[in-house]
Design brief:
414 residues, alpha+beta, Beta-clip-like, 4-stranded mixed β-sheet, 16 strands, elongated, disordered N terminus, disordered C terminus
């Protein structure tokens, strides 16, 4: 039995199983790079009118995309015409032709979108048949995700194929592909959730859209006028470390610059609701983002709020500055689901002029993995709450077997 398991887990070098395993791994890496290249392309497209550098880079990216499409389209038509001269009629090409296989299986939309990325263009021309087959399948499985990704960022992929004349021998209708593009509002990317039935929805809480903000909101009304200033403002009483980014103890204005938010998407998970799927790999210690929301003095419930503590060592006294309530206003970090063996953790840091709580990677996180975090023991003491993460050391299992939870913390306290 052990030798059988060994053969399954570690196939012989050079065997078909080993080669397919390598191809699957490389296809996953290429797909992640496609998302990254699309994000970069959309970034320069948005800023093309703002500065000359972005405009030049965007023009170069568009030129490379158009050149690729023109060349592959001409090659396809040459093959079709050669077949007609030989057999006297048009006929669809064999699946070995990558232009034909991609358009017929995945569609014009995906070709027009993926062609904007250098990594796809190289894979199209250089990948062997195993890798190409694995990549084709992964793009097909993630087609709605990719389409939503570029749509929410304003990419106009239809320009690339709008002048192609229908009908084309053996290929689907171009016009039908353009007309079937997403009918979804162009909004912030984190206002869209990929559902389990391969659809789209918006994240709502108590009838209100959960809107994205870049930094926490301080409103004196949420503190019953007890504070006339932001309780998270950097001061001697709240921070002894200075800004984590520059080390300055005085006002510095630093802002965390992280692209992690561009490389995650809101996705429904069975039994969990909305969660976060990564689109890129992250290394241990990476600061993914800051947990933000409305700052409040009162703990409204035990579901969303996070305790914001001071960024200093205090042997006694109240270390709680306030609570961060992201029910209606927040960023993508509020949707990270719990796990008793999480991939990320909350860390209190001083960044710029505020004491904040960051979400940081505890280990190497692979692309397309679900991000998880530990909500803390007290979260699961609320009536009706039971963790179902499934890990061998799940706190709910421990509570059932031992009759108590030995990991009590403040509600989602960093």
């Amino acid at each position: 039995m052990q030798s059988q398991n060994t053969r399954v887990l570690f196939p012989p070098i050079g065997s078909e199983a080993a080669l397919m395993g390598t191809a699957e791994y490389c296809a996953r890496q290429i797909l992640s790079s496609i998302y990254y290249d699309l994000s970069t392309n959309c970034h320069f497209q948005r800023n093309a009118n703002a500065d000359a550098h972005s405009n030049q880079v965007h023009n170069n990216l568009v030129a490379a995309t158009v050149e690729f499409m023109d060349l592959e389209f001409r090659n396809y038509m040459v093959c079709v015409e050669a077949f007609k001269r030989q057999h006297g009629e048009y006929q669809a090409l064999t699946p070995d032709n990558r232009f034909f296989s991609f358009v017929s299986q995945v569609g014009w939309q995906m070709l027009a979108i993926c062609a904007h990325t250098e990594v796809f263009r190289r894979a199209f021309r250089e990948a062997d048949h195993r890798l190409w087959g694995c990549l084709l399948r992964r793009i097909q499985e993630n087609s709605l995700s990719i389409m939503s990704y570029v749509h929410s960022r304003g990419m106009n992929w239809t320009k690339l194929i709008c002048n192609v004349q229908d009908p084309l021998p053996g290929l689907p209708s171009v016009r039908a592909a353009i007309e079937s593009r997403l009918n979804w509002k162009v909004d912030h990317p984190h206002h869209t959730v990929i559902t389990r039935d391969n659809g789209l929805k918006e994240p709502f809480y108590n009838g209100h859209l959960q809107e994205h903000i870049d930094q926490s909101i301080y409103d004196p009304k949420n503190f019953n006028h007890r504070h006339q200033y932001d309780p998270t403002a950097k001061s001697f009483h709240t921070s002894q470390h200075g800004c984590y980014l520059c080390g300055n103890n005085s006002s510095c204005g630093c802002v965390l610059q992280s692209r992690a938010g561009d490389m995650v998407e809101l996705t429904e998970y069975e039994g969990k609701g909305t969660g976060i799927r990564t689109l890129a790999a992250f290394d241990r210690g990476d600061i993914l983002d800051v947990f933000v929301g409305e700052l409040t003095h009162n703990l409204q419930d035990h579901v969303y709020p996070l305790t914001q503590s001071v960024d200093r060592q205090t042997p006694c006294g109240n270390n709680i500055l306030c609570y961060i309530a992201p029910h209606r206003y927040g960023n993508w970090t509020r949707f990270i689901n719990h796990s008793c063996q999480p991939s990320t953790q909350f860390v209190v840091r001083t960044i710029g002029d505020r004491v904040v709580t960051t979400v940081e990677a505890m280990r190497r996180i692979s692309a397309f993995e679900e991000l998880t975090i530990d909500y803390g023991g007290d979260y699961w003491t609320c009536p009706g709450k039971s963790c179902s993460c499934g890990h061998w050391n799940c706190r709910s299992k421990t509570k059932q077997t031992e009759g108590k939870d030995n990991k009590t913390q403040a509600t989602r306290k960093a």
